């Protein structure tokens, strides 16, 4: 103890003495030189060498020579094109090695040709072993009412997340997409999908885009005047950036017609499923395996263990801007006598969101995109990765024509567990909740089942429906060229999901597509009017009976309204000391207002301040609106809490409450009736003689319907005015 250990000099390869072991020596100091830019370097290349003396170069080499663990002679950077610049997200999950290109798309002369060098590998098939989702075969009578049949099969099918509905043989609707003008002339945009990278590549690319966009944004501190003037522009710009980042899942492809897309898809499938002698493999080979199962096994082999780059095309026509709907419409050329049943059918995807018993129109405007069916054009391996419908709505998909599609579904009760598994596999998503409802990664069903999440499978053929239940994650890929159409809708049994999802969106600061409060209140008013007509006019129509069935103390609509009113009352209690409050115009809902903090819908109530007239918050975030004094803020509300509680009582069946709300809602209609009455031409009297005489001319039925409607509404107004003294 206390003995000093001596330090022996270490010698390097050249015999020089080193005072410390290799790697622990301090770096030799270098003299900093002036930095020259690229322009100066290009103009005088020798200037770089002139700035560094020979002594500097020798010292720099000697410094590296004292690090023996670096083998300078073995360092090989490799091809530069194999090491692209990676973002922070890509560094955490390195890209896979470069694969040979298996598909060459297009040529200098055309866009609809394809050369496929890759071939299928049946010996490496990755076919998942899954249980099938249930299949239902409605009779002609059951098929007449779509929402009624869906409600009937829900107890049996909802636990699977998805199910298949095979219409009766009599269902043969015409497809407008096969008309020559649409088939040969209408062009639509396509997307190029890399199937070999669906499991992780596009997830990283999408997160990288989002990460880079957020990094480039620089927050600016605005004064109240600046905030007032540019608040709308900032919101639009932010929304635009996010939409670009979230919608650019795949690269853009060529614009094609249905005819050229089919040629491309058929050529791809024919070349890919060939043997080494370039002979197309007959689906009915000696193995006698269904072609769908073989395509499915090859699809998951490419996703999980690809040997080549496989690129396919897919097309989407949102809101029917280019191709329109495949179903017959009232103004379509196929609207002839033999097709009238399909124009009005409840299985026509243009009708089902707006049917009696579907609540979606009450929560959005008639021109909203969510009410319009969306068209999908696919080819072999074209995919829609795991996703969930907005607001956890129902979704109905119909295949017009083409090869089959393979669907996978996860029951809605496993929705949040699915999200947790995705966060576990991709931790970056914890910071990007907006990506969880529509992923750009194709997780294997086998992987999900290993995490305790059940996955069910169904195969959709032409002229068949696939129903997606609320909260069910689902994925689908095509087995060849096909065309399908899908739309969202919200029957009454969706209501328990609606409010929960709105609150979840608020916690994640995620924008809503529909106004849930507007939907609830308008549906409740419709139910009250149905009760009033049943009580006073003895009008027990099918529509009124449907609304009455969801009322009562245990009614599903009553419970939804009661829960929302209770939540609203609790939140208003904390703002009762606001000195200013203003009543909103009951019919002022032309524009959808959202909380500037959490994107919550502000149909029912919100808080504003005079310092920023175009900026509002929900009741939860009222204190974060601005720095002004509390007395300067104002709460806006559409209904008093007492009115909302009275609405709950009306839905429960209280006669006085029904009378109060019916009087409020029907009398504005009576004022509009006077205008209609005054608009009747001179000499026309609303009696039987006039009705008979007018029936001889064109449009007589329309006038008779107007007259009957006027008389029925006037009866209601008279009854209300007689009971007003009570």
Average pLDDT number:
75
User: What structural class do helix, strand and pairing data support?
Assistant: alpha+beta
- pLDDT under 50 segments (min length 5)? 45-51, 64-96, 201-205, 210-248, 283-289, 668-726
Task: Order the strands across the largest sheet as they lie in space.
Answer: 6-7-18-15-20-13-12-9-10
Strand content: 5-15%
**Could you tell me how far the N terminus lies from the C terminus, measured between alpha carbons in angstroms?**
107 Å
Note the main sheet.
9 strands, mixed
Broad shape: globular
Question: What helical percentage do the residues reach?
Answer: 25-40%
Region (Disordered): 684-708
Subcellular location: Nucleus
Domain JmjN: 133-174
Domain JmjC: 341-506
Report on the architecture of this protein.
Keywords: Nucleus. This is Lysine-specific demethylase JMJ16. It holds the Pfam family zf-C5HC2. The protein has about 725 residues and is an alpha+beta fold. Helix content is about 35%, strand content about 15%. It is built from 22 helices and 24 strands. Strand 22 and strand 23 form a beta hairpin. The longest helix is centred in the first third of the chain and has 24 residues. It is globular.
Short description:
Residues 341-506 form the JmjC domain. This protein has 726 residues and is α+β, with helices and mostly antiparallel strands.
Q: Key features?
A:
disordered C terminus; alpha+beta; 22 helices; 9-stranded mixed sheet; 37% helix; single chain; 726 residues
Q: Any chance you could write out the topology, listing elements then pairs?
A:
Layout: E1 10-11, E2 17-18, H1 38-43, H2 46-51, H3 54-65, H4 88-92, E3 103-105, E4 114-116, E5 131-132, E6 135-136, H5 146-157, E7 162-165, H6 180-185, E8 187-188, E9 190-194, H7 201-216, H8 224-247, E10 251-252, E11 256-257, H9 258-272, H10 291-305, E12 311-317, H11 340-343, H12 360-363, E13 374-378, E14 383-387, E15 394-402, E16 405-410, H13 415-425, H14 445-450, E17 456-460, E18 465-468, E19 473-478, E20 482-489, H15 495-507, H16 516-536, H17 542-548, H18 556-573, E21 580-583, E22 605-609, E23 612-617, E24 633-637, H19 641-652, H20 655-678, H21 688-694, H22 700-722
Parallel strand pairs: 5-17, 6-7, 21-24
Antiparallel strand pairs: 1-2, 3-4, 7-18, 8-11, 9-10, 9-12, 12-13, 13-20, 14-19, 15-18, 15-20, 16-17, 16-19, 22-23, 22-24
């Amino acid at each position: 103890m206390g003995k000093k250990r001596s330090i022996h000099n270490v010698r390097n390869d050249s015999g020089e003495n080193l005072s410390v072991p290799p790697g622990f020596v301090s770096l030799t100091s270098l003299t900093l030189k002036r930095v020259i830019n690229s322009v100066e370097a290009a103009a005088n290349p020798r200037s770089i060498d002139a700035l560094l003396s020979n002594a500097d170069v020798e010292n720099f080499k000697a410094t590296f020579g004292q690090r023996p663990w670096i083998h300078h002679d073995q360092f090989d950077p490799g091809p530069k094109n194999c090491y692209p610049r990676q973002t922070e997200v890509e560094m955490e999950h390195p890209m896979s090695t470069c694969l040979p290109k298996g598909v060459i798309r297009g040529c200098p002369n055309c866009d609809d040709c394809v050369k496929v060098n890759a071939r299928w590998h049946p010996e490496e098939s990755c076919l998942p072993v899954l249980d099938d989702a249930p299949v239902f075969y409605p009779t002609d009578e059951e098929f007449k009412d779509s929402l009624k049949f869906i409600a009937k099969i829900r107890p049996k099918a909802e636990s699977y997340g998805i199910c298949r509905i095979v219409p009766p043989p009599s269902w043969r609707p015409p497809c407008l997409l096969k008309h020559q003008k649409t088939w040969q002339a209408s062009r639509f945009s396509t997307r190029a999908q890399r199937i070999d990278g669906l499991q992780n590549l596009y997830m990283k690319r999408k997160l990288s885009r989002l990460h880079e966009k957020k990094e480039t944004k620089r927050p600016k501190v605005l004064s109240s005047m600046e905030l007032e003037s540019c608040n709308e522009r900032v919101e639009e710009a932010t929304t635009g950036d996010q939409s670009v980042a979230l919608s650019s899942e795949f690269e853009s492809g060529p614009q094609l017609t249905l005819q050229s897309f089919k040629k491309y898809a058929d050529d791809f499938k024919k070349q890919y499923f060939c043997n080494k002698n370039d002979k197309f493999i007959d689906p009915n080979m000696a193995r006698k395996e269904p072609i769908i199962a073989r395509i499915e096994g090859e699809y998951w082999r490419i996703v999980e263990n690809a040997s080549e780059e496989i690129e396919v095309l897919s097309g989407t026509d949102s809101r029917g801007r280019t191709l329109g709907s495949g179903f017959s419409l009232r103004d379509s050329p196929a609207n002839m006598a033999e097709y009238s049943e399909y124009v009005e059918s409840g299985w026509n995807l243009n009708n089902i969101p707006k049917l009696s018993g579907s609540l979606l129109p009450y929560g959005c405007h008639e021109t909203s995109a969510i009410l319009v069916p969306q068209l999908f054009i696919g080819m072999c391996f074209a995919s829609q990765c795991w996703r969930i419908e907005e607001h956890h709505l129902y979704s109905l998909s119909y295949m017009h024509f083409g090869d089959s599609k393979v669907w996978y579904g996860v029951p809605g009760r496993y929705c949040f567990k699915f999200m947790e598994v995705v966060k576990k596999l991709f931790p970056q998503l914890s910071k990007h909740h907006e990506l969880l409802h529509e992923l750009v990664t194709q997780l294997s069903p086998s992987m999900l089942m290993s995490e305790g999440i059940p996955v069910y499978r169904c195969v959709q053929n032409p002229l068949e429906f696939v129903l997606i239940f609320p909260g069910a994650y689902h994925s689908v890929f095509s087995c060849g060229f096909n065309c399908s159409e899908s739309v969202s809708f919200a029957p009454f049994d969706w209501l328990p999901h609606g409010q929960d999802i709105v609150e979840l969106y608020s916690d994640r600061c995620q924008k809503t597509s529909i106004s849930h409060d507007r939907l609830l209140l308008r549906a409740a008013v419709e139910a009250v009017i149905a009760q009033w007509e049943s009580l006073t006019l003895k009008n027990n129509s099918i529509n009124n009976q449907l609304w009455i069935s969801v009322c009562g103390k245990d009614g599903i609509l009553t419970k939804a309204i009661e829960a929302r009113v209770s939540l609203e009352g609790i939140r208003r209690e904390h703002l009762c000391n606001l000195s200013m409050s203003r009543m909103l115009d009951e019919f002022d809902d032309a524009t959808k207002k959202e909380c500037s903090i959490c994107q919550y819908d502000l149909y029912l109530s919100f808080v504003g301040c005079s310092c920023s007239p175009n900026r509002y918050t929900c009741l939860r975030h009222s204190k974060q609106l601005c720095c002004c004094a509390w007395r300067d803020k104002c709460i806006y509300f559409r209904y008093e809490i007492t009115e909302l509680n009275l609405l709950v009582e009306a839905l429960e069946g209280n006669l006085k409450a029904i009378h109060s709300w019916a009087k409020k809602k029907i009398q504005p209609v009576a004022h509009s009736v006077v205008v209609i009455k005054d608009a009747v031409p001179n000499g026309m009297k609303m009696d039987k003689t006039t009705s008979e005489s007018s029936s001889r001319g064109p449009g007589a039925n329309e006038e008779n319907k107007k007259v009957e409607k006027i008389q029925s509404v006037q009866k209601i107004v008279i009854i209300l005015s007689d009971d007003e003294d009570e």
